[in-house]
Amino acid sequence: MDLAYIPSPSTGVIHLGPIPLRGYAFCIIIGVFVAVWLGNKRWVARGGKPGTVADIAVWAVPFGLVGGRLYHVITDYQLYFGEGRNWVDAFKIWEGGLGIWGAIALGAVGAWIGCRLRGIPLPAWADALAPGIALAQACGRWGNWFNQELYGRATDLPWAVEISAGPNRDAGTYHPTFLYESLWCIGVAVLVIWADRRFKLGHGRAFALYVAAYCAGRVWIEYMRVDEAHHILGLRLNVWTSIVVFVLAVVYFVLSAKLRPGREEVVEPDRSGAEGEKKAPAPAGADAAVEAKDAEDKPSDPAEAPAKPTVLTKPEPTATATAPSAEPDAAEAPEAKKL
């Protein structure tokens, strides 16, 4: 007899009249708000402008949701395109099924578009958002609890999760791998925040640390799961994905530290700088103030006006020699010959 366990919700949806509130979607929405809130605080602390993180998230979140769903459907296609399956179920995202790898990959494309439009380096934005993404995953994993999915092997531990009978699952108590991953993601967020403050991580290294740390935990958590999945060389596909992504994140972290040490000094350009270089128009009343100043400097009485300095000019030299007269002088004229 089990002395204690974590009960699962009897339903994953609550109806408020005609409006269904699904626990899975609610957890994802909470995670998005937490990521944007924390990312905005970190972005502003690094010299960015408030609201920039949310503006770029408008691009990143939809891309991420589409990417996460595509990854899940592609890697678990038998759940939607196998015999007796309905392919329309692939669009029912509220029933669960988001692959973090697809969400990060395609979400990065959306973030790149948003950063390009704002003239912001993507690595700096990713560094600011990294711990928030980990917390968003911690919140989102509780959506699996509402849907009674992503549990581990059977166990009688006090913190086991109770799973009721349903399609492709047997009633019993199992390892709550959703809880393990949620707690691990919280630890990853704390690690990234601490390391970023301690070592001043920049140029995407805080994000790389988040990816590497998450993958390290995902390997052993994925190994505990018992739900249907594809296997390669005896390991689940997501285990191999975690190993590959972990290696890539570590390589990027090391190379980035050597090629671009330190942290970005400017993360968001000041678009008002170019306009500030132009001569600003004089404020209202400035011309009147200048005229009043000139009036104070100008004496009211002409007698008080300072005399203009006398400019001494050098007289032009007069000619010392005169041109000879056309007619000879009478005194000098020779006497006329007498006839």
Automatic annotation (TrEMBL):
<comment type="pathway">
    <text>Protein modification; lipoprotein biosynthesis (diacylglyceryl transfer).</text>
</comment>
<feature type="transmembrane region" description="Helical">
    <location>
        <begin position="23"/>
        <end position="40"/>
    </location>
</feature>
<feature type="region of interest" description="Disordered">
    <location>
        <begin position="265"/>
        <end position="339"/>
    </location>
</feature>
<comment type="similarity">
    <text>Belongs to the Lgt family.</text>
</comment>
<keyword id="KW-1003">Cell membrane</keyword>
<keyword id="KW-0449">Lipoprotein</keyword>
<dbReference type="GO" id="GO:0005886">
    <property type="term" value="C:plasma membrane"/>
</dbReference>
<feature type="transmembrane region" description="Helical">
    <location>
        <begin position="177"/>
        <end position="195"/>
    </location>
</feature>
<dbReference type="GO" id="GO:0008961">
    <property type="term" value="F:phosphatidylglycerol-prolipoprotein diacylglyceryl transferase activity"/>
</dbReference>
<feature type="transmembrane region" description="Helical">
    <location>
        <begin position="91"/>
        <end position="113"/>
    </location>
</feature>
<feature type="binding site">
    <location>
        <position position="141"/>
    </location>
    <ligand>
        <name>a 1,2-diacyl-sn-glycero-3-phospho-(1'-sn-glycerol)</name>
    </ligand>
</feature>
<feature type="compositionally biased region" description="Low complexity">
    <location>
        <begin position="313"/>
        <end position="333"/>
    </location>
</feature>
<keyword id="KW-0808">Transferase</keyword>
<feature type="compositionally biased region" description="Basic and acidic residues">
    <location>
        <begin position="265"/>
        <end position="280"/>
    </location>
</feature>
<feature type="compositionally biased region" description="Basic and acidic residues">
    <location>
        <begin position="290"/>
        <end position="301"/>
    </location>
</feature>
<dbReference type="Pfam" id="PF01790">
    <property type="entry name" value="LGT"/>
</dbReference>
<dbReference type="InterPro" id="IPR001640">
    <property type="entry name" value="Lgt"/>
</dbReference>
<dbReference type="GO" id="GO:0042158">
    <property type="term" value="P:lipoprotein biosynthetic process"/>
</dbReference>
<protein>
    <recommendedName>
        <fullName>Phosphatidylglycerol--prolipoprotein diacylglyceryl transferase</fullName>
        <ecNumber>2.5.1.145</ecNumber>
    </recommendedName>
</protein>
<keyword id="KW-0812">Transmembrane</keyword>
<comment type="function">
    <text>Catalyzes the transfer of the diacylglyceryl group from phosphatidylglycerol to the sulfhydryl group of the N-terminal cysteine of a prolipoprotein, the first step in the formation of mature lipoproteins.</text>
</comment>
<keyword id="KW-0472">Membrane</keyword>
<feature type="transmembrane region" description="Helical">
    <location>
        <begin position="237"/>
        <end position="255"/>
    </location>
</feature>
<keyword id="KW-1133">Transmembrane helix</keyword>
<feature type="transmembrane region" description="Helical">
    <location>
        <begin position="52"/>
        <end position="71"/>
    </location>
</feature>
